[in-house]
Structures are given as structure tokens and as C-alpha cells.
Amino acid sequence: MKTDNGGILKAESMPVQVKTIEQFDVIFQNIGYGITVQDHKGKLIYVNKEAARMAGFSSPQKMLLVTAEDILKKFTLMDKEGKNFPLDKMPGRYAAQDKNSHEALIHYKFNKSGKEYWSVVKAVPVLKGKEIEFIINTIRDVTVDMREEERRDYFIAIASHEFKTPLANIKAFTQVLERRLKLKKYDDIYPLLARIEIKVDELVNIINEFLDMSKIRAGRLELSYEIFDFNKLLAEIIKDFQQITPAHRIIKKGEVHKLVISDKQRIRQVIVNLLSNARKYSPLTDIIVVKVSQRKNFITVCVRDFGIGIPKIYLERIFEPFFRLQRLKNERISGLGIGLYIASQIVYLLGGRMWVKSELKAGSTFCFSLPYKPKKIKKKFVDIYKF
Ligand code: ADP
User: Fold this and answer.
1) Suppose 274 and one of 253, 303, 309, 385 were both cysteines; which one would form an S-S bond, judging by CB atoms 3.0 to 4.6 Å apart?
2) What's residue 185's pLDDT?
3) Which CATH number fits domain 9-141: 3.40.640.10, 3.30.450.20, 1.10.287.110, 3.30.110.30?
4) pTM of the model
5) Domain spanning 226-382: which CATH class is it, in words?
6) Better-predicted residue by pLDDT, 13 or 376
7) Nearest C-alpha neighbor of 122 from the set 9, 32, 10, 36
8) How far is it, in rounded angstroms, from Cα 387 to Cα 75?
9) Residues within 6 Å of ligand 1 by CB
10) What phi and psi values does residue 205 have, to the nearest 5 degrees?
11) Which pLDDT tens digit goes with each residue over 123-178?
12) Nearest atom in ligand 1 to 305's CA
């Protein structure tokens, strides 16, 4: 088959170095944009791999067996504001009506799995005389950009809230303190000072999280290796944490029988983060289990709670920066959504990995594994979270 037999491949501006339909197909099948072509009746006559992937088909051939209408039925379509996207506003349909090109940003959600994506769809009609011969749709997956934007907006709202609450508390405590001092009620001031200190610590923690986050992203998180007894460290962390967590009972299981070379303080930070989350997200249950086990070259630590759990569809996003689950309004639990990102990056930099298992309303288990001693020291930040 030659390319000069009309149709889609007869583009005048193209220097004809590519000779066959098969060669064009190899190109179209492997570019990073989705391409579909519909005939004048709206029937799909060409689909590339990326378009099939975005529409949830295992191959273009499988997608071609289904009508465009049936493909659209797999999703709920929304616009940028989250409102229903009417089908007659789809760029392809618009283009079929007025014979011009149209473009739209579409937020779509698979009805079956609940997974959400974003794409920019552009439809270009190709005319034969005055009639439409076919319509070419190019589909650009912009999920990564939209999530980044969504997270940034959400983060600004959350960060302002997280700073404002302890500051408002500190201000209120200081005013009471002032009054008590005026009245010379000195005994009353100590509990107030202690509460102010707690709130100041909360602010310092938030600022430290920001600093860690920017160091990780710039590849400048310093690790300092030392040799230590892991059992001792874990026992110490649990004892300290238990003291500030009277409402939960922390149960330790397992032992490690080797000394470890790693960054003790960073490991402490990771475990404290997992314990804090286990406590925060299990307000109605009171047991947290910390289990440590050892394999040939690795230690594994798992922190299990029996709390609110995480819906399956969000599990793969849980280690993204600024990712927080939107729960019911009256269920607001404070946090910035960067603790797990930092923890998983620290573990990665120490040569290990972190993962999670969870069931909604039954609880979550966060685990990480670490080598006994580093193979080679990793310096660079890497996007280990995936979309
Ligand atoms: P933060 O707790 O500050 O929001 P994290 O990065 O530690 O941020 O956690 C990100 C999100 O993961 C939380 O907002 C929460 O929705 C979810 N999450 C983390 N740990 C748990 C847990 N143990 N149980 C249920 N959900 C959790």
C-alpha cells in the first residue's frame, strides 16, 4: 500500500520520507498522544495504543470493536469545575456539526473502578469538498499536571489552616496568661505555659516537614550513617510514643538479631510518622501493632492500626506529596499530606522501600524494609510515587 492513495496520509506539507501505511502506523501507534479517527458517521476507524490505554482497553484492536457511544458510557465526564460534561459538547461532535476544530479539557472517571484522569481532546474535521470525510481526535493525558495543580491549591488551603490553628491557640493562651499574671495567680500559669509549648512544637514540626520536603526535592537531604541496635531503637521509640499516646496501646512483635548500619534519627522519624498516622486515623480503636521481622539482607517494620482505613483506589497515590483523602467535613483530621511522602523518600534514600495494605473501616498496615547496611548511598531525590 502506498501513501499517496488519498485520505489521512496525503498531507501536502509532509516531506514524503515515510513510505508505507505500515510505517505511518508504527509512528502513530508509538507517539505519546492518543489518536482516534472517526468516519463521517462517527464510527471509529483508527485508534492508536495511547488512546486505547487512556480509554481502558488493552489494545487498539479491542477498542475498535466497540462503538464510540459505548466507549463514552464507561466514564462519567466532567468539566474543570467538576460539573457534568454534556456529550454534545464533546469536541468531535462539535466538529461534526460546524466543520471547525474544537478543543476541550475533560475530567473523566471510570464508572467501574472510580479512577480519575484528565485529558485535553482536540477534534479536527477533514473535509472532502464540503462534506466531512473523517474527524481526527488527538487526546493528551494531562492527569499529572492537573493533579499537581489540584494538590498545590489544596496544599495552600491546608497549610494556611495548619499554621493558623496553633497560632490562634498561642495567642489565646498568652492573653489568659497576661490576665493571670496581672491578678498574681502564679500557680495557674504553669499549665498554660506547657500548652503554649505544645503548640509551638506543633509549628516547629510543620516547618521541619517543609524543610525536609524541600531538601528531598533538591536532592540535599543529608543522611548520617551509624551502627546501632535496632531492637533498642524500636523499644525506645515505642516507649516515648506510648507516653504521649495514652489512649492507644502499642504492642511490639518480633526481634532483629543483627546490628544495623543506617541513619538512626531518620529511621526514628519514619517510625514516629507511621505511629502518629496510626493514632490519628484510628480514633475509635485503641490498639497499634508494630511488627519487626528480618530476612537475609533486610529488616521489615510494619505498623498496623484498626482504624478508618483507605479506599483501594487511593492506595497507589498515598505516597504522593500533598495527597490527603477528602473525608467527611466533620471528620477533619489535621495534617499537611507530606508526612508519608517524606517517610517513603527517606526509606528509599536508605536503600529500602515502603508499601501499604489497607481496608476501608478495618485499618491499615504501613510497612517498610531496609537493608542492614547500605549497598551504595543514594543521594538523589526521585519520583518514586506513581500516578
Ligand atoms: P497527613 O496525615 O499529614 O495528612 P500523610 O502524608 O502522613 O499526611 O498521610 C497522607 C494521607 O494518607 C492522610 O491524609 C490520610 O488520608 C492517609 N493516611 C495515612 N496514614 C493513614 C492510616 N494509618 N489510616 C488511614 N489513612 C491514612
Assistant:
1) 303
2) 81
3) 3.30.450.20
4) 0.69
5) alpha beta
6) 376
7) 36
8) 19
9) 277-278, 281, 305, 307-310, 318, 323-325, 335-341, 364
10) -60, -45
11) 999 999 989 999 999 999 999 999 888 877 877 887 888 888 889 999 999 999 99
12) 23
